[in-house]
Amino acid sequence: MEIIINFVPEVYLGSALIYFTGPRSFNKFLKEKAKKINIDTFREEFLKIKDLDEKEIFYLLSLPYIQPEYRDNWDIYLNLKNSSSFNYLLKGDLHVHSNFSDGISSIYELVKYAVEQGYEYIGITDHTEDLKVAKGMRREKILEERLEIKRVEKLFPNIKILFGVEANIRIDGSIDIDEDILKELDYVIGSIHYNFNETKEVNMKRYINAMNNPYITIIGHPSGRKIGERKEMNIDWKKFFIEAERTKTFIEINSTLDRLDLSSSLAFEANKYNIYFSISSDAHISPQLKFSREYGLNIAKRALIDEKKVINTYNFSELQKLLKIKRET
After folding, report:
1. How far is CA 192 from CA 161, 178, 219, 231, in A?
2. β-pair type (187-191, 218-219)
3. Cα–Cα distance between 107 and 111 in angstroms, integer?
4. What pLDDT score does 135 carry?
5. Are strands 92-96 and 121-127 parallel, antiparallel or unpaired?
6. What pLDDT is recorded for position 134?
7. Taking the complete model, does pTM exceed 0.85, yes or no?
8. For residue 4, what pLDDT band results from cuts at 50, 70 and 90?
């Protein structure tokens, strides 16, 4: 990994932060604003403004402060009538693994931590049988987990526990769990976990078949990338988003540090469609529940996704209705 370290005099730190946290088009825009009040630049668009922090520089240029997360799409952000629609309040997490599959924490520990985070609900979604390496659950273990969830529910009356699974999407788009089990779950995450190097045609057929399954509620970590390990799959994203919109399938923004999937650029493209998102931690140990608020939210902000399109900003009763939309159409 190539790392570039830039040294600047401390008096120009505010200018440097702006310069290095926005696209070139944003810096050019600020340069034009600066010209009008006779502020010079160093090289290119680096504003020559001393001893002011970022907020003070925006004020000097007669602009509202734009947080770094919004600067990728600064021009759209500036023209929004209501920027408060990005004040996300996540009320739960819908992608969480326990020690029933490859997680470390017990369901009790996960729920206890979610209560401490102030969550209204949590969804337990362990792997199903194809993923032997992740201790994927067969039918008997899924039923056993349901009983454990009912036991833990009695211990935590102030939080709702949803019972789902993360099912594997096979090479033909079928799911590794029988439909009679799927019907009994609150929702299902469908994810690809192997055969990442297929052609675009194979991958699209795979995803389209999965999204047409009425019980697949959310597509998990859609691009399949692992940062520093594996590139995203070959996918026709326009077709993918159109199909998600048509089938009323939700799309995950996975907040795990080696995934961050969808990326902010893909999430921005997805946001052009009538698609709902789930910002999820994909936690495998209870402290990872923080990932959604610490990382996933920033992806949504950079993509300018309205909080009304994020299903886990809704309260529990509203969420239940959203999770049933696809099955009832």
Report:
1. 25, 17, 9, 14
2. parallel
3. 6
4. 75
5. parallel
6. 66
7. yes
8. confident
